[in-house]
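dude i think i finally got it to work??
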Amino acid sequence: MESGQGAGRIVGALTSSLLREEYASAPEIPMSDAEVLALVELAQQRGAQSIAIGSGRHPMCLAGAQALSDAWQHAGGELALVLDWPETAASWLRQATRFSQANADLWIMLGPPLGWAQMTRRLLWSTPWKPARALLAGGISDRRTLDLVGLHNLPGIAGTTRDGAAWHLSANDRIIEIQGPGS
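look at this
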């Protein structure tokens, strides 16, 4: 393990914070109301009082972050930070440091997938951020996107699908749906 990697944590096969492969993601679509409400409910179920929201800079991701921010505050929650990151960057270190230092109980992350994966790899590589304190929106909750970071690097992460179904990553790296929409 290289010194400084993951703030003293071993992160498996993560040998760099940067992806070395091409990735073509599906076009971004707006977050559904069910998805926004499911994320708010999941955050509340985890006892969060304050959240940090991070997203890519795609207009639909920024709109999703705003909708989530509005819903969270309407539900009585505090907003510690709303941060966006580029889809491509030299390292994402500035954004990762700022995001991980937010005084939040929970971090909620939106896509697009490639930028999320790069940002998450930088968070794991260079900060004390913990995936178990993060929720993912539906646009980055598919197996192909999670594999860009590696399931073994994301212990305890959870999120929602685009239709509002909640899921979590099990101890044996399986994605388990824990409730359907409206459950």
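Residues 135 and 166 are 10 Å apart (CA to CA).
im so relieved honestly
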